[in-house]
Prior knowledge:
Layout: E1 4-5, E2 9-10, E3 33-36, H1 47-56, E4 62-63, H2 64-71, H3 75-87, E5 91-94, H4 106-119
Antiparallel strand pairs: 1-2, 3-4, 3-5
Helix pairs in contact: 1-2, 1-3, 2-3
Amino acid sequence: MPWLDESAGRLIRPFTACGGRTRPTVGLDLLTLVVATGRPIRRRLGPEHTQVLRTCAGPASTPVAEIAAQVRLPVAVTKVLLADLFELGAVTVNSPVPPGRSVTDRDLLEAVLHGLRARL
């Protein structure tokens, strides 16, 4: 990543990547699934937007938390960048929790645990 320096760390503060904004314009949580649409963007993207978009490019949806971890940005910054990309039509977002179900639903938590164990 060109914006990192081995000894100094990040050369540009994360919130400059999103113009100091701290709230996304789209409702996103850590479990929201994101995937790139492949639509051409008619606007020049900053390096952080490009990196986030690259992380979303693939056949499978990626959760917001994983995207933030991969691009090494705070979740709040990642959400703002994803909201920008959503408004441009570059990504789609979907909640993994069906309407009427709670994130703390036992079946859902057991499915997550099963998935985590399968990865180990």
